[in-house]
Amino acid sequence: MPTSAKWWIDGDESAAEMLARVSAERSVSLLPPPLHRLPLRVGNVVELVGPSPSAKTLILIQAAINTILPSEWNGVHYGGLERSVMFIDLDCRFDILCLSEMLKHRIMNLNGSMNKMNQDQEDIGMQNFDTRRKSNIAYDEELYTLCMRRFLYVRCYDSFEFLSTLKTMHCHLQKEKEVKHSSIHLLMIDSIGAFYWVDRATSFLPSGSTNRKSLSLQSVFETVVQEIRKLVQVHPMLVIATKTTTFGDRNFANEAHRKYLPDTLDFRNAATNTRQLPYQENMPSVWQSFVTHRVHVRPSDHVTIVDRQNHSLYLSEWLLPSLSYLDKFIVQDGGVFLHN
Amino acid sequence: MAPLKSLEPEFSAIDSHFQMFCVSLGIFTEDFLLYDLHKLTGFAEQKPNSERLKQGITQLLSVVDGLHKPWMNGMDLLEDAKQNKHILSTGCEGIDMLLGGGLREGQLTEIVGPSSSGKTQVCLQAASSVAKKHMGSVVYIDTCNSFSPQRVASFVGLVSNLPFDQGAKHKILQNVMSNILCHSVFDIFAMFGVLHQLEFKLRSQKGDNQVQLLIVDSISSLITPILGGSGLHGHALMLSVGYLLKKLAHEHNIAILVTNHTVGGEGGIPKPALGETWKSIPHVRLLLSRDRGNNICSVSIIKHSSMASGKAASFMIYG
Known about the structure:
The complex is a heterodimer of chains A (340) and B (319).
Chain A: H1 4-10, H2 15-25, E1 28-29, E2 40-41, E3 45-50, H3 56-68, E4 72-73, E5 76-77, E6 84-89, H4 96-122, H5 126-149, E7 151-155, H6 159-180, E8 184-190, H7 196-201, H8 217-234, E9 238-244, H9 252-260, H10 267-275, H11 285-290, E10 293-306, E11 309-320, E12 327-332, E13 335-338
Parallel strand pairs in A: 3-9, 3-10, 6-7, 6-8, 8-9
Antiparallel strand pairs in A: 1-2, 4-5, 10-11, 11-12, 12-13
Helix pairs in contact in A: 3-4, 4-5, 6-8
Chain B: H1 16-25, H2 37-46, H3 50-65, E1 72-73, H4 74-84, E2 87-88, H5 93-98, E3 103-104, E4 108-112, H6 119-133, E5 137-142, H7 149-159, H8 166-178, E6 180-184, H9 188-204, E7 211-217, H10 220-223, H11 233-251, E8 255-260, E9 262-264, E10 270-272, H12 275-278, E11 284-290, E12 296-303, E13 312-316
Helix pairs in contact in B: 2-3, 6-7, 7-8, 9-11
């Protein structure tokens, strides 16, 4: 055994080595807009909150597409992470054709721009262009299939199914890793508050019996948080959950008031504004404290015209950590795009 | 989830020792889902027959794995959507055009409109169209005594343009009418009964003449009486019905059409009834309105999973 004092003082690794190791294992990435304001890393839990039709599922799909695309394929730069994603659908309204169309759009856009560049640069004859185009479309199919296979999906119709999915997810993830050699980077839960009312109304046992745990809202969420925590430790991944606010958006007056405040106003006003959430929070505190980031999206009343088509404008705002920007975005065929 | 005792014949490791071990921790049935597996294994290790108990835990875990739907990847979902989820025409050209063909199997479409805006007519027309064109059976759940066989017969008569003799026409009519099953329910618990029976029937028989369309006219008259007040059960029941309908739609490839009425909203503009919580149930929401005096209805999209809202079309109700 080496001289204990010197060995102890020397330490295991230097700060530079540790930083290099951590940034390789748990790298920081930027999600596509409107979640792009802050870099997110594995282990973060992002909650996307908003009233019922506010493009939350589309934002999830966009984030999924970013993750499942490769960074480069056949010379075309796609800029993806080439990892798998898991989508737990508690809302049970997911439309696979929506994902498929958005993915095809993305691939064709990026492929098409590459094609155009090639043609401009090399000045090819028509015949050559056709064969090259055909081969590009064939590659698209292969790429498309590869990406679609990286998207894993399960739907749960009640809390039992959700809990059993979480409990058995570890084995499935292990299998995926062994079979496909690609690990999960993103876990998406569509509408974490889907069974809120049903769980709140069910309480199986009278409160007398102390030994037995009953399936109530509190215990379900405690188990959910516990299981996700354990999963994230073994399979590091980013968690994004959507939540529908059911009591409507209060504090429209607050928003209007904020518009008239100049940016240089003192911190006191900013602090009181941030403490009041623009909706009523009804999730149990165990979930609220599990969430590390929160984004609020909602439709605004404005309609803008892009490409000669009317699009309704959505607003997104970071509540946790509280940033003072209000991003505006629109929904098009190719996805969710920022609008200035 | 069944009590542990009933799992014994199939899973040998879940014997009486294991059951006693579980009872000592307070696990009788589905409470297993609430327990931390590592803690459970830790407790098991302390007992003398730890290997056997751990086997029991593994087997119980495999039972739990069977409780949820299997994981699918994107290509499997696409296959399923292309092969099983067909589009059913409603018989109303305007609605078909708006929806890109018609009602989609696996989706819940909601038609919202004030009274006498033509919701029941659309339902009856959809029932007759599916029963005739697609040769599938239709289940019509009628909550307000609005089902009219005569109307359905007239829609069927209208659709067939070829000159038939009376005998053949009568035969077609008989076939179509026997494909439409009408249930009258007047409260939500009877509705649950009908839906559970339907689910059981669909799971046990997988033959021809499968149910393709399920119509609930109108779902709001069943749910509105139980909402309101300070009870939580109204919302819970509403969501349970919604999820049961979605489950039937997806697992058994049925298109579901429900109708809802309107209530006054902010500024006097009518909004759909059943509130915010119901908004997350239907895939597609259409708003129907009829000009007074004539038969022209206009329909617009309030919400669609892949189309922008606001698109509108109009059509005429014949007869």
